[in-house]
Amino acid sequence: MKCKFCSKEAYIKLHYPKTYLCIDHFIEYFERKVQRTIERYKLLRKDEKVLVAISGGKDSAVTAYVLNKLGYNIECLHINLGIGEYSKKSEEFAKRQCDLIGAPLHIVRIKEVLGYGIGEVKTRRPPCSYCGLTKRYIMNKFAYDNNFDAIATGHNLDDEASFLLNNLLHWNTEYLAKGGPLLPGENKFVKKVKPLYELTEREVVAYALAVGLDYIVEECPHARGATTLDMKAILNELEEKRPGTKFTFVRGYLKKRGLFEVEVEKKELRECKICGMPSSGEICAFCRFWGLKEPLTFKVDRDEDNLRGT
């Protein structure tokens, strides 16, 4: 098949809208769609300082690559989760990606900072539960300590659709109220944005290959059997039968999100007495889980270009 816009051989067939594109026109399409997403949802300004959370995987690498190419002021943060060989590989991929992109990379290794890696803590909580808590806290604390205006993550259309389906099935209205491409900053919470919000996982993979971004393909050992994978499988089956299902589902949610917002009471936040970050109780969930007695600080020493962590 030929590209819709030229006589070159098609690199990809887009399922929605149904279009064949060569590699050059696909790259142009992808980057234009990211820019339109940023503009439509007012995610970022060019004068803002953006921290991209980069895992070593395709989504976060593509996010950093595109934002840098579009002229946004980015730096990257990799959180090494201390999961044996998997985390070692992830960190190496993150380093190579940032070398290719030409973006500064900061690394926080939680085993060095907290004493344990994910999966090593003696707790009844599943690893994914406190892993999410830990990553969210460190991303926000790092961004706050270093005066970033926004945190950009690599969540794509498939991620958002599976998140919505899972939470709708369980009627988790509090989580449904917080969905969407933009989570505004408030108090000591730094604004979070999802530039790939309207792009599918398949398109992200195609873009990474097109621009030469290498990424880790192994899944986290703790992710096997995760509910998210089941939700994605269901949505992929629906998408195959009815192209555009994911996009329509997510766009429809954005129009009706207010229905969930009115059901969620805004919790009064105070400062955690350990770290000073926002908390619904005396001690925030992060400090409570990790048993911290002193706050962590991630202030970057710009002269030496490394991290001071305690």
TrEMBL record:
<feature type="binding site">
    <location>
        <position position="59"/>
    </location>
    <ligand>
        <name>ATP</name>
    </ligand>
</feature>
<feature type="domain" description="Rhodanese">
    <location>
        <begin position="31"/>
        <end position="95"/>
    </location>
</feature>
<dbReference type="InterPro" id="IPR035107">
    <property type="entry name" value="tRNA_thiolation_TtcA_Ctu1"/>
</dbReference>
<keyword id="KW-0460">Magnesium</keyword>
<keyword id="KW-0004">4Fe-4S</keyword>
<dbReference type="InterPro" id="IPR001763">
    <property type="entry name" value="Rhodanese-like_dom"/>
</dbReference>
<dbReference type="InterPro" id="IPR054306">
    <property type="entry name" value="TtuA-like_LIM_N"/>
</dbReference>
<dbReference type="InterPro" id="IPR014729">
    <property type="entry name" value="Rossmann-like_a/b/a_fold"/>
</dbReference>
<keyword id="KW-0411">Iron-sulfur</keyword>
<feature type="binding site">
    <location>
        <position position="159"/>
    </location>
    <ligand>
        <name>ATP</name>
    </ligand>
</feature>
<protein>
    <submittedName>
        <fullName>tRNA(U54)-2-thioribothymidine synthetase</fullName>
    </submittedName>
</protein>
<dbReference type="InterPro" id="IPR000541">
    <property type="entry name" value="Ncs6/Tuc1/Ctu1"/>
</dbReference>
<feature type="binding site">
    <location>
        <position position="79"/>
    </location>
    <ligand>
        <name>ATP</name>
    </ligand>
</feature>
<keyword id="KW-0479">Metal-binding</keyword>
<keyword id="KW-0808">Transferase</keyword>
<feature type="binding site">
    <location>
        <position position="22"/>
    </location>
    <ligand>
        <name>Zn(2+) 1</name>
    </ligand>
</feature>
<feature type="binding site">
    <location>
        <position position="272"/>
    </location>
    <ligand>
        <name>Zn(2+) 2</name>
    </ligand>
</feature>
<dbReference type="GO" id="GO:0016740">
    <property type="term" value="F:transferase activity"/>
</dbReference>
<dbReference type="GO" id="GO:0002144">
    <property type="term" value="C:cytosolic tRNA wobble base thiouridylase complex"/>
</dbReference>
<feature type="binding site">
    <location>
        <position position="284"/>
    </location>
    <ligand>
        <name>Zn(2+) 2</name>
    </ligand>
</feature>
<dbReference type="GO" id="GO:0002143">
    <property type="term" value="P:tRNA wobble position uridine thiolation"/>
</dbReference>
<feature type="binding site">
    <location>
        <position position="275"/>
    </location>
    <ligand>
        <name>Zn(2+) 2</name>
    </ligand>
</feature>
<feature type="binding site">
    <location>
        <position position="3"/>
    </location>
    <ligand>
        <name>Zn(2+) 1</name>
    </ligand>
</feature>
<keyword id="KW-0408">Iron</keyword>
<dbReference type="GO" id="GO:0000049">
    <property type="term" value="F:tRNA binding"/>
</dbReference>
<feature type="binding site">
    <location>
        <position position="6"/>
    </location>
    <ligand>
        <name>Zn(2+) 1</name>
    </ligand>
</feature>
<dbReference type="InterPro" id="IPR011063">
    <property type="entry name" value="TilS/TtcA_N"/>
</dbReference>
<dbReference type="GO" id="GO:0005524">
    <property type="term" value="F:ATP binding"/>
</dbReference>
<dbReference type="GO" id="GO:0051539">
    <property type="term" value="F:4 iron, 4 sulfur cluster binding"/>
</dbReference>
<dbReference type="Pfam" id="PF22082">
    <property type="entry name" value="TtuA_LIM_N"/>
</dbReference>
<feature type="binding site">
    <location>
        <begin position="53"/>
        <end position="55"/>
    </location>
    <ligand>
        <name>ATP</name>
    </ligand>
</feature>
<keyword id="KW-0862">Zinc</keyword>
<keyword id="KW-0547">Nucleotide-binding</keyword>
<feature type="binding site">
    <location>
        <position position="154"/>
    </location>
    <ligand>
        <name>ATP</name>
    </ligand>
</feature>
<dbReference type="Pfam" id="PF01171">
    <property type="entry name" value="ATP_bind_3"/>
</dbReference>
<keyword id="KW-0067">ATP-binding</keyword>
<feature type="binding site">
    <location>
        <position position="25"/>
    </location>
    <ligand>
        <name>Zn(2+) 1</name>
    </ligand>
</feature>
<dbReference type="GO" id="GO:0046872">
    <property type="term" value="F:metal ion binding"/>
</dbReference>
<feature type="binding site">
    <location>
        <position position="287"/>
    </location>
    <ligand>
        <name>Zn(2+) 2</name>
    </ligand>
</feature>
